[in-house]
Amino acid sequence: MGAFSGRRRALHSRVGRRNSRRDRFGTDYDGFYLPRRNYVFGKWLKGGGHEDDKQLRLYLRGEHVTYGDKEVHELPQGLKKVGTLKCFLAHYNYETIHQYLDKMNRYTDLEASVLRKRGLAIGWKNVLWYLVLKPVVFFLFLFIYKRGYVDGLTGLI
Question: Are strands 54-59 and 31-40 parallel, antiparallel or unpaired?
Fold first, then answer.
């Protein structure tokens, strides 16, 4: 009977400290990154910047956590100690070219609204940068430097 009472007391003391990070997560970390394996058209992408894609997916919510003002891909901010887990998250982006084009159209609409809100002037310098130079530089960076070519045609798209 005495041993059972001791266990019950320990349980109650843990429940009473529910707000501490250690009790809620079992660790002193505020959050964890999960390595992500990206699958596009059913193929695991191993290059093009997708091979080391870590996503902050597990974290403690609370008043200390804030979010950025981005329209898409906003991240929690204010986490003090963040670790990385070894297991991976399988992320199936799109299975068809139609899904890919729909997603790109949504993202370009969001980016255009962000640039409009910033008051970006439509001039020849901005047109040259956003329609010609930036896409070429981005392609060369992902396809050549980040080795997108290892995924073949899928890495090209």
Answer: antiparallel
